[in-house]
């Protein structure tokens, strides 16, 4: 039985990857942070009582900012594969917590690599590093491939740039099997509520159900290459099954604006939107916009709030998945309409529950960040 260690197992990708590897017969270990409330919602359905025999999922308390605990866990687990998914992953929040982001996302990767080296596991343990399309940042060329130059535009992306290069360096310096997956945006019903797609699908569901009036967003003109997280965790696994360690772009090759994602999500919730005035663009931002209106009811349901503009923005991401198709044989199963449908239908179910609870006098989450 192969053994995998997943950092960030409580996150969107960690949850899908854990389920995928358990399905492949792996023993899966995960690192979770100590939090004041339970933070394992996304993997609770995979939980196995540690008192039972033959448990194949085990969680360890840990943090990427603590090398002593990483060394101890890796020594205990002796993993065949480490998937380093843990990170402070929100681009806008990284402007507010730049030092912590550098520590967790940049140095955290070094701590993992160094732990494997110190423990003499370089010949055994393969390492996947969760790199990102945010590395491309300010557009140099499109579509972005493994050879496109990087130009990071946020403390998050700069921290991930360090992580990318330290992974390449340990591979070259010590012959480690360490790879970067340069993944473009991938979403799902498990996506964190403050990323733009999930923020939109949650709000569209709430507005359709009559428990929210309006959605405030930032830059509607940003374009992203959106795929489904379920497809992307399979690519992570494939990257570590190759004969030689290499870096791969994982993307759909199709880009869509935030504005169009809004239209699609609301349509899936049964609301046709019309944007009146595409807004005045300045430095890549829509500085003013008369918003999106519910057709035919006429009320404005989406407005631009400059609070959500970033000090430096990434305007356009579109990935070139040629190498991953040719070498890994990887093909996404979900296209964007299928992704929107999956997210929207899941949020309609969740928000119906909220509506019912609210109608019965219980408090529900009405924090829309
Ligand atoms: P999430 O934000 O959903 O999950 C991040 C995970 O990291 C959570 O389990 C979180 O724990 C954990 N974590 C955060 N800080 C620390 C820390 N200091 N020590 C230990 N664990 C920590 O991210 P995703 O699942 O979406 O992304 C997974 C990885 O892939 C991240 O590294 C992200 O930067 C990267 N990535 C994501 C893309 C995407 O579109 N989703 C695209 C490209 C790269 P907790 O649950 O306690 O908060
Ligand atoms: P991103 O994802 O920054 O690409 O990082 P996010 O969904 O946060 O933003 C995508 C684009 O939408 C614009 N936007 C808004 N974003 C948010 N969060 N909230 C808003 O209200 C809003 N309005 C417009 C943003 O400006 C941006 O252009 C994600 C994360 O998962 C990273 O960890 C990962 O590395 C990259 O994807 C690839």
Automatic annotation (TrEMBL):
The cofactor required is: NADP(+)
> Which Pfam families would you find in this protein's record?
GDP_Man_Dehyd
Q: Which residues form the NAD(P)-binding domain?
A: 5-343
- CDD domains noted in UniProt: GDP_MD_SDR_e
InterPro entries recorded: GDP_Man_deHydtase, NAD(P)-bd_dom, NAD(P)-bd_dom_sf
Q: What is its EC number?
A: 4.2.1.47
Q: Which Gene3D superfamilies match?
A: NAD(P)-binding Rossmann-like Domain, UDP-galactose 4-epimerase, domain 1
Protein origin, superkingdom: Bacteria
Catalytic activity line of the entry: GDP-alpha-D-mannose = GDP-4-dehydro-alpha-D-rhamnose + H2O
GO molecular-function terms, A-Z = GDP-mannose 4,6-dehydratase activity; NADP+ binding
Which key words are in the record? Lyase, NADP
UniProt-listed GO biological process terms? 'de novo' GDP-L-fucose biosynthetic process
HAMAP family referenced in this protein's UniProt entry, alphabetically: GDP_Man_dehydratase
PANTHER family assigned? GDP-MANNOSE 4,6 DEHYDRATASE, GDP-MANNOSE 4,6-DEHYDRATASE
Function per UniProt:
Catalyzes the conversion of GDP-D-mannose to GDP-4-dehydro-6-deoxy-D-mannose.
By what name is this protein known?
GDP-mannose 4,6-dehydratase
Annotated organism of origin: Cesiribacter andamanensis AMV16
Taxonomic lineage = Bacteria, Pseudomonadati, Bacteroidota, Cytophagia, Cytophagales
């Amino acid at each position: 039985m192969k053994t995998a260690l997943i950092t960030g197992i409580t996150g969107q990708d960690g949850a899908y990857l854990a389920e995928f590897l358990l399905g492949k017969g792996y023993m899966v270990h995960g690192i979770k942070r100590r939090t004041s409330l339970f933070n394992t919602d996304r993997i609770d359905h995979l939980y196995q009582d540690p008192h039972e025999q033959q448990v194949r999922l085990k969680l360890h308390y840990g943090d990427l900012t603590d090398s002593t605990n990483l060394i101890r866990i890796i020594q205990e687990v002796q993993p065949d594969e480490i998937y380093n998914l843990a990170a402070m992953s929100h681009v806008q929040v990284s402007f507010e917590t730049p030092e912590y982001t550098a520590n967790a996302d940049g140095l955290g990767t070094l701590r993992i690599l160094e732990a494997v080296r110190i423990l003499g596991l370089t010949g055994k343990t393969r390492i996947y590093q969760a790199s990102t399309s945010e590395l491309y940042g300010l557009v140099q060329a499109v579509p972005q491939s493994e050879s496109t130059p990087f130009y990071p535009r946020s403390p998050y992306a700069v921290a991930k740039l360090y992580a990318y290069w330290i992974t390449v360096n340990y591979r070259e310096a010590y012959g480690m099997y360490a790879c970067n997956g340069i993944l473009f945006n991938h979403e799902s019903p498990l996506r964190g509520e403050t990323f733009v797609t999930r923020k939109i699908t949650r709000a569209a569901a709430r507005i359709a159900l009559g428990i929210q009036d309006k959605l405030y967003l930032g830059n509607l003109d940003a374009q992203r290459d959106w795929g489904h997280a379920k497809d992307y965790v399979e690519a992570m696994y494939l990257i570590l099954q190759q004969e030689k360690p290499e870096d791969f772009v994982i993307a759909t090759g199709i880009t869509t604006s935030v504005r169009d994602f809004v239209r699609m999500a609301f349509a899936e919730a049964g609301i046709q939107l019309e944007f009146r005035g595409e807004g005045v663009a300045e430095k890549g931002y829509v500085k003013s916009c008369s918003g999106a209106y519910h057709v035919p009811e006429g009320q404005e349901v989406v407005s631009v709030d400059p609070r959500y503009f970033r000090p430096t923005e990434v305007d356009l991401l579109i990935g070139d998945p040629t190498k991953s198709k040719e070498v890994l044989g990887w093909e996404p199963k979900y296209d964007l309409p299928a992704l929107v449908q999956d997210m929207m239908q899941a949020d309609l179910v969740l928000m119906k529950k909220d509506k019912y609870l609210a109608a019965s006098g219980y408090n529900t989450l009405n924090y829309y960040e």
